[in-house]
Design a protein that fits this description.
Layout (H helix, E strand, L loop, with lengths): L6 H13 L5 E3 L7 H18 L3 E5 L12 H15 L3 E8 L2 E6 L2 H6 L5 H6 L16 H17 L9 H13 L8 H17 L1
Parallel strand pairs: 1-2
Antiparallel strand pairs: 2-4, 3-4
Length: 206
């Protein structure tokens, strides 16, 4: 016979479902992954949510009551992952929500785009420019390509570079590579990419 759910636990779960919803909740507790599986799944999921809609998400790790010694290996693995994701511009902050879950605040897309190369200003100022590979962008729809170009210009100008035209192709390639690494595989991949680019443009212009 199935035991009834404790009233308080059910109440908190109801609040979580109302505040976050299924699309903004990652439940690692029910699938019982290993620590490495949990890290891989959490990073992929957080990256996808960031490019779709930054903000708060809920990650359920479980307390680890069934783990050896009562230490939650999944919980510890996810906590250890957070500083790395913050350095790479994926998350802004995180905090304990319950003993078995945490609220993660995703960083703006512009943080993701600028975090990996903080020394870009020195590279541009020195007059050095890597070989651009615009061929990889030719399959994009014209509207997506136009938005990507605008985002590249805005990003370069935000660094205080006066002559942005010299680096546009290079920056378009870099942004494209950064975003496509995080986007989910879907039939409308171009549309998903365009939405992510538009979100980043709104952040830069806002």
């Amino acid at each position: 016979m199935r035991k009834p759910r404790p009233p308080l636990k059910g109440l908190w779960q109801g609040f979580d479902e109302a505040n976050f919803g299924a699309d903004r909740t990652l439940n690692l507790r029910d699938s019982l992954p290993s620590a490495q599986e949990a890290r891989t799944r959490a990073e992929s999921w957080l990256r996808m949510r960031q490019v779709m809609k930054p903000g708060d998400v809920l990650v359920i790790t479980g307390r680890g009551n069934q783990s050896p010694g009562g230490v939650g290996v999944v919980r510890e693995a996810i906590i250890a992952l957070m500083p790395s994701l913050r350095r790479r511009g994926v998350v802004a902050s995180w905090r304990e929500h319950t003993p078995g879950s945490m609220v993660v605040t995703l960083a703006p897309i512009t943080t993701l785009l600028t975090a990996p190369r903080r020394n870009r200003e020195r590279e541009y100022d020195s007059g050095e420019m890597r070989i651009a590979t615009p061929e990889s962008l030719r399959g994009l729809e014209p509207e997506t390509l136009a938005d990507l170009r605008q985002l590249a210009i805005r990003t370069i100008e935000s660094l205080g570079v006066d002559d942005s035209t010299r680096f546009i192709n290079d920056e378009m390639q870099r942004i494209f590579s950064t975003l496509t690494m995080t986007l989910p595989v879907s039939a409308d991949r171009d549309g998903t990419l365009r939405r992510a680019i538009k979100s980043a443009l709104e952040e830069v212009d806002g």
